[in-house]
């Protein structure tokens, strides 16, 4: 491990060679830009406290990025890429100092045409979606943080989100078309990766390649109305959400189920959420609203809220920002002692599994479900349950119990790529991409256990502890 004095001397040489770059000097700003939303996890909050970069740089174009990356490679300075810092795993937190690259200056759409669009990694998703709508299209997938989250951040650290009910996760074939990545070498190369090869950088937290541009397939633009439907009975809410999600003729963009007591944490919506009720948040195209009304009536639901597409955003807050991990954020504002998990269920028996775990844990786990299509198109649901946190030991017991019951857990309380989404291992292809684009192991060091033990050399820094 490089000692701090040598590390700072190396960084000083990079800075002296590149005085024209936009270096961030304010200590508070450097600290802020070295963080993300890892504090959702009480485990990571303790583990990552006090980790900050030695410097932050905001490249204004690709040539400035190339100069910075080349300088860091020549001097052996580690690099942590940052989008908008909306991730929840500590992806943007440098474990061993070095440079945080703020991609916010690379924020332009490259082109939009014929059902596809390409944008620089730092472009905000809301801006990209707005640009696509000018061409009659929209982004297929959006996280609940779409107003500030970046294109590159979604690709490097995201899964899916609003729109996954139609198009599955971002990694499903056909959603991601390609990326342009920059190698971390003394003379950085720009490399175009297409299809499956591009996916070797997906959800890798910027550990095995610097993504400069992302090319995505788009969908025809729709006017999405927002609805809340409430139910006194849990199973009625689940079956309604299942029927809506499966209905082939109804255009929808999100189907979210909040089982009691989760709706109590959405404080600004309390007038639309009767005490003790289970709630379904549905985004449907306005053309499908008559069919939605018929389904609500047939299933015994109470239509408690509706916002027209034209009113969402300009006049009314959007329900999109009450779904996915925004639900967790709203709950943490009410009760900071809570945390969360990430689960997925087996298509075909997913409702049975939900009923089983709901009964098993009581209110220790409060269930928030998002209906999606899986990688193969099968309808299922994922979950972001709120957890009444007590100890790390109990949290690990809950995770183990869920896994024993056949429920997948993507653990958001670990800070290594393998142990969060990938179940403990990485594919040989992902490791090969690391060797290809980051041969010195300078990208986000400490976040890949696989690379830390790789006999080829590279990042020999001690990685975060393995999962319990």
Description:
The protein has helices spanning 4-17, 27-32, 42-47, 62-75, 125-133, 151-157, 164-167, 195-198, 234-246, 289-298, 325-334, 350-361, 392-404, 417-420, 428-437, 449-452; strands at residues 23-24, 55-57, 79-82, 99-102, 109-113, 116-120, 137-139, 176-182, 190-194, 210-220, 224-231, 252-258, 278-285, 302-307, 338-340, 343-344, 365-366, 368-373, 379-383, 386-388, 408-409. It is of the alpha+beta class. The chain is globular. Mean pLDDT is 94; it is low at 453-468. α1 (4-17) packs antiparallel against α4. The protein is 30% helix and 22% strand. A hairpin with a 5-residue loop joins β18 and β19 (379-383). The strands form 4 sheets. The protein has an 8-stranded antiparallel beta sheet. It has 3 domains: 4-103, 2-Layer Sandwich (Uridine Diphospho-n-acetylenolpyruvylglucosamine Reductase, domain 2); 105-220, Uridine Diphospho-n-acetylenolpyruvylglucosamine Reductase, domain 3; 224-409, Vanillyl-alcohol Oxidase, Chain A, domain 3 (3-Layer(aba) Sandwich).
């Amino acid at each position: 491990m490089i000692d701090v004095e040598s590390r700072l001397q190396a960084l000083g040489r990079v800075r002296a060679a590149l005085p024209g770059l936009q270096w961030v000097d304010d200590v508070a700003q450097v600290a802020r830009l070295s963080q993300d939303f890892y504090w959702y996890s009480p485990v990571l909050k303790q583990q990552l406290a006090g980790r900050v970069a030695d410097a932050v740089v905001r490249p204004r174009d690709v040539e400035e990025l190339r100069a910075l990356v080349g300088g860091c490679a020549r001097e052996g300075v580690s690099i942590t890429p940052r989008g908008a810092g909306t991730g929840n795993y500590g992806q943007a937190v440098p474990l061993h100092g070095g440079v945080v690259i703020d991609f916010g200056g690379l924020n332009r759409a490259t082109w939009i045409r014929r059902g596809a669009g390409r944008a620089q990694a730092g472009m905000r998703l809301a801006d990209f979606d707005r640009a696509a709508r000018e061409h009659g299209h929209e982004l297929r997938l959006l996280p609940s943080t779409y107003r500030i989250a970046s294109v590159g951040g979604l690709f490097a650290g995201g899964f899916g989100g609003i729109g996954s009910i139609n198009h599955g996760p971002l990694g499903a074939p056909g959603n991601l078309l390609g990326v342009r990545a920059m190698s971390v070498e003394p003379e950085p190369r720009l490399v175009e990766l297409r299809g499956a090869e591009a996916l070797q950088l997906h959800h890798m937290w910027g550990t095995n390649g610097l993504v400069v541009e992302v090319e995505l397939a788009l969908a025809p633009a729709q006017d999405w109305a927002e609805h809340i439907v409430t139910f006194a009975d849990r199973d009625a809410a689940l079956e309604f959400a299942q029927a809506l999600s499966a209905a082939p003729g109804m255009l929808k963009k999100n189907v979210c189920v909040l089982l009691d007591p989760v709706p109590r944490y959405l404080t600004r919506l309390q007038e639309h959420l009767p005490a003790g009720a289970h709630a379904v948040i549905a985004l449907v195209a306005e053309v499908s609203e008559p069919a939605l009304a018929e389904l609500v009536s047939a299933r015994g639901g109470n239509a408690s809220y509706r916002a027209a597409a034209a009113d969402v955003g300009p006049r009314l807050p959007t329900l999109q920002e009450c779904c996915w991990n925004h639900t967790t954020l709203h709950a943490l504002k009410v009760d900071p002692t809570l945390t969360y998990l990430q689960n997925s269920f087996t298509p075909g028996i997913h409702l049975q599994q939900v009923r089983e775990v709901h009964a098993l844990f009581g209110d220790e786990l409060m269930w928030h479900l998002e209906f999606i299509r899986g990688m193969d198109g099968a309808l299922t649901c994922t979950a972001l349950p709120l957890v009444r946190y007590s100890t790390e030991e109990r949290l690990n017991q809950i995770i183990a119990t869920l896994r024993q019951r056949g429920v997948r857990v993507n653990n958001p309380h670990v800070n290594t790529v393998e142990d969060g989404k990938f179940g403990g291992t990485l594919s040989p292809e992902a490791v090969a991409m690391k060797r290809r684009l980051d041969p010195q192991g300078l990208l986000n060091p400490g976040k890949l256990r696989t690379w830390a033990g790789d006999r080829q050399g590279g990042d020999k820094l001690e990685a975060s502890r393995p999962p319990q």
